[in-house]
Each structure stands twice: as structure tokens, then as C-alpha cells.
Design goal:
The structure is a single chain. The chain contains 8 helices and 5 strands. It is globular, with a radius of gyration of 20 Å. With 267 residues, it is mainly alpha-helical.
Length: 267
């Protein structure tokens, strides 16, 4: 396969958007911030359309951003390279070196929204159901950013759409970042349609259930196309990403079957 890469698309994108003196602005950061901004606007529209006070919306943004960053960073350190970070505790704070885990970010946001709902006396499922839509959008943006960064690599492939990530090596690989971003885009469209057509007040938790099932089913399946990321994964049948996806998927299934169980009890 040494010269085979000449038949495939070669990706050699510079992850730095702007460089001034020693200050660099990365595409990843721009897309991350853009996803947060657009997500905030989506939530603002939900608040306005459903006649909910905007007074605590800025607080929700702060809670979510802190939850994402802290959760994603700790998730990476604990789930993917615990031995290194437990022996180099201060490196946990070196977030500029990279290393964010989406499952940890999910846990962090869940915890943040729980405390937000408790403090501001907002119904928890009212918030999380609507947050699924900007969260799917966020996942789409982040995977595009991963592609621009030539990170989270796919396994070697001879498929005609395989891509050589020249900054890494000369091996054509599955562009798994694009697979995942397309999956999240589909979930975003699905959730947006469901939001418009289901009776949200009577179907509390349904959007969250659909989100968890769709996102983490896609994540579980696409892990088969990824190179292993955790340092200890060579000893495991499933990848770390797959094992972490299972609890989220089970919660999603539970949320989807819960209304049927309740109706069965009432009957």
C-alpha cells in the first residue's frame, strides 16, 4: 500500500486558521464556539416560542459550557489514558494540548443541567428534551473539526472514498469523522421533525430517548471503523467508546419504553 495512496484523496489541511506572533486560532476552536453560539440561539428560539422567560437562559449557557469542557476533559483523562494522568495530575489542566471525550462531555452536561434545573426551578425533562437538538448540532460541528485536525482516525481502507491524512501517515483510511458527522446531521434533522410534530407536554423524555438511542447506536457501530484510541484497548473486545456508549443507549431505550409501561399500568 506504499504507493497506493496516490489513488486516494490526500488530506493535508492546516488546523490553524490564524497565526499572529505566538497566538494561534484553530479551526477546532472556531467550530466549537460556533456550535455553542448557534445552539444558544436555538434554545433562545424554543424559550421565545414556548413563552418561557429568558431570564435564566444565559445561566444555562454557562452551566452547559462548563459541563462540556470539564466533563469532556476529565472523561478523556479517566477513560482513555488514566495511568498517565493519574501519575501526572497537573497535565489534566493542560487542555490546550488536546484531549476531550464526548462521553465525558455528555456526563458533564447532564450533571450541569441537573443542577441548573434544580436552582432555577425548571422542569428537567423540559430542558433536556430541547437541548438534544443543539447537542446533535454540536456533535456534527465537533466531528467536522476532528476531520480538519486529522484526528480520531479510521482504520486503513481500500474503498474509493478512503482518505490519506498526510499529516499522520500515507495510509488511506475510512474518513470516520465524516461518517459520524453525517450520522449526527441525520439525528439533528430527525429530532427537529419530531419536535414539530409530537406533543411535547405529553411526551416528556421522548426526544431525549430518541437522541440517546440514535446517537449512541451510531457511535457504537462506527467504532468498528476507528483506530483504537485508549492505550489499553488492545486487550479488549470492544473499544472504550463502545463500552461507554452502552449505558447511554440503555437509558435511551428505557425512556422510550417508559410511556408504554405507564399506559399498561393505567389500563
Amino acid at each position: 500500500m506504499s504507493q497506493g495512496w496516490l489513488m486516494f484523496m490526500v488530506w493535508n489541511f492546516d488546523p490553524i486558521l490564524i497565526s499572529f506572533l505566538k497566538f494561534n486560532i484553530h479551526w477546532y476552536g472556531v467550530l466549537f464556539a460556533s456550535a455553542i453560539f448557534i445552539g444558544f440561539q436555538i434554545m433562545k428560539r424554543f424559550y421565545i416560542n414556548e413563552r418561557v422567560s429568558l431570564e435564566s437562559l444565559d445561566a444555562l449557557l454557562i452551566y452547559c459550557v462548563v459541563g462540556i469542557v470539564v466533563g469532556a476533559r476529565l472523561g478523556h483523562c479517566i477513560f482513555y489514558d488514566p495511568q498517565y494522568y493519574f501519575t501526572n495530575i497537573l497535565r489534566i489542566f493542560a487542555i490546550w494540548e488536546g484531549g476531550l471525550a464526548s462521553h465525558g462531555g455528555g456526563i458533564g452536561v447532564a450533571a450541569a443541567v441537573f443542577f441548573y434545573a434544580k436552582k432555577y426551578k425548571v422542569k428537567l425533562f423540559w430542558i433536556v428534551d430541547r437541548l438534544t437538538i443543539p447537542t446533535a448540532l454540536f456533535g456534527f460541528f465537533v466531528r467536522i473539526a476532528n476531520f480538519l485536525n486529522s484526528e480520531i482516525l479510521g482504520k486503513p481502507s481500500n474503498e474509493p472514498w478512503a482518505i490519506v491524512f498526510k499529516r499522520i501517515d500515507d495510509i488511506p483510511r475510512h474518513p470516520v469523522q465524516l461518517y459520524e458527522s453525517l450520522a449526527y446531521c441525520f439525528v439533528l434533522i430527525l429530532l427537529s421533525v419530531l419536535y414539530r410534530f409530537i406533543r411535547m407536554k405529553e411526551q416528556s423524555g421522548i426526544l431525549l430517548g430518541v437522541f440517546l438511542c440514535a446517537i449512541f447506536s451510531a457511535r457504537f457501530l462506527l467504532e468498528f471503523f476507528k483506530e483504537k484510541q485508549a492505550v489499553y484497548e488492545s486487550e479488549l473486545i470492544l473499544t472504550t467508546g463502545q463500552m461507554l456508549s452502552i449505558p447511554f443507549l440503555l437509558v435511551g431505550i428505557f425512556l422510550l419504553i417508559l410511556p408504554k409501561v405507564k399506559r399498561g399500568i393505567k389500563m
